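From the shared-data thread, chain only:
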Amino acid sequence: MGTQVTNPIVIMLINMTIVFAVLFVLSLYIRLIHKIDPTAKPAVQPKVEAPKAAAQVAAPAAGPVVEKGIAGETVAAIAAALASVGVGFSQVKAIRVADRPGWTNAARNEGLTSLKLKK
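Structure, as tokens:
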């Protein structure tokens, strides 16, 4: 028999070399599969749009559709919140009350009524 390696550092280096070599070979195999993949969709080139007329660009954008029952202060608060994160208010399409299913309201009410304030 030959000599056995008992040094743990040498064993660790051999094992790590084997693991990383296998990982490298797997990464090459994955890259090869991506190159020759017959199911890949061809890249679609973006359409080049004609420049808009100056009258269309200069036209002010219509504001969002606001549902009845929403106060002006609420709309102003939403606009301020959007402006604080860098979103233009002209990007908003509609402001409406969110649907609240019964279970959500029940859980919300239970959570609010079960709070015990310490004195």
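The two ends are 81 Å apart (CA to CA).
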